[in-house]
Structures are given as structure tokens and as C-alpha cells.
What we know:
Distance between the termini: 40 Å
Number of strands: 8
Strand order of the largest sheet: 1-2-3-4-5-6-7-8
Helix content: 40-55%
Amino acid sequence: MKEKVTVPQILLMKQKGEKIVMLTAYDWITARIIDESGIEIILVGDSLGTVIAGYETTLPVTLEEVIYHTRAVSRGRKRALLVADMPFLSYQSSIRDAKISVGRLIKEGGAEAVKLEGGKNMADTIKAIVDMDIPVMGHVGLTPQSIHRMGGYRVQGREERQRERIIEDAFAVEEAGAFSIVLEGIPYDLAATITKDLKIPTIGIGAGVHCDGQVLVIQDLLGITFPPRPKFVKAYVNGGEIIRKAVREFIDDVKAGRFPDEEHSYH
């Protein structure tokens, strides 16, 4: 097994020009498989709300749900850096609440870092968490917890005023002490500018190739989500059809009396 991935190593990867790869996971077995595959960062995202729980948005996800899934992932992950998302209302109401939330994600969930959405408006919160010696990954651009303000899952930063705000947000996150930042749903040239100017690594999702790293939701990568899918999603296998085919064969075998056969029966 390669050596354990740590926050200093992630920072060093940017300096060396090495691409960083991050995937989501929400359970023990998936975490173990992708960890053994050589991923650098595993994110227990609040995306669990839409791909695990079936919510329409990430907003209903609770801190307890993230802790539960992080704890499961932590048992399957040996090498990758484990980052847990801070769900809506676990950090916005006060810095004190944010500190308690991150403390629980580390102590009860086994996370090694946390991710939270927001730029200048969350700079004081990021700094307070970093001052607790807990690493923070920022997240700017399209921030799913702000979809009502944004009018849905819309690309951000196409207008000059938006571009300026996103750049300001990214620098505020870095200045507050975050060790990395997710850039979501922004034009690739804006992501390139931010990546070039920041000292901390950028991890893109729908932000183009010039980011220091990339992240996808594991269900999107495996092709087991339902359309419509965002433009940035690349399914590396049609997992949905593979599962359907296996289930249909199982149904046929049971109905026809072919399963279980002698090989799969005890004597």
C-alpha cells in the first residue's frame, strides 16, 4: 500500500504539478474499493441526500446523516484523505455551532478534514475551524446549498460581476486558511485564472481541465444515476444497465428453478 495521504501531501501535489483525484463515497464497501484503487481524497458529500436518500436537493441532509456515513466510510478507507461535508445549517447559524459540528465529524465520524460552502461570508467560520487545527476544504462557484438564491443548478461566473465575486470568494477562502477549494459549475477560463493565482489546490467539478484536481460523485462515474445528468458528468460504465441485467437474470433463474442449483446449496 502507498503511504497515507495527508493535507501537507495534497498541498505538495499542487507545487509539483501533480493532479489530485477525489471521489465521493457513502459506505464501507465503496470506500474500500476506491481506496484500494489509489484515490487521493474521499469525500462524504452532502450529495448523499440526492443519490442515497432520494431527496430533491442536499438541503434536508442532517449532521447525523453525514456522521453516520462518514463513520462507515472511515472503516473502509486506509490510505485516502477523508473529508466530510458540513450539511446545511450545521455551520451557518454561528461559529460556535460550526465548531461543535466539525468536532463531531472528526470525533464521531472519523473525518480528517471538513468541507463547507461559501466564500467571503464564511471566511470567519473557516478561520475559526482552522484555528482548532481542523483542515478545511472550501467550496465556491455553484454552491448547491444556495440553489434558491441562484435560481437552481446554474453555471456561475458568466457575468463579470459574478466572476469578480467568485474570485474574491476564492481568495477569501485561501486567506482564511483552507488547504484546498472546490470550484463547481464555473467557466473553465475562470477556473484556470483562480487555479493559477491561488497557492492552495483547486478541485473542479464542472470547472474544466485547468484545476489542480477533479471530483465526481461515485454514482455518476458508475452510471447509476438517472437523467438528466449535468454536462460535466462522465459515466465510465453503464452501471445501471449492468445492475438491471443481473437482476433480470436472477429473476429468470428463480422463476425457472435454476437458482439455487447444487453448486449453491449446502449438503
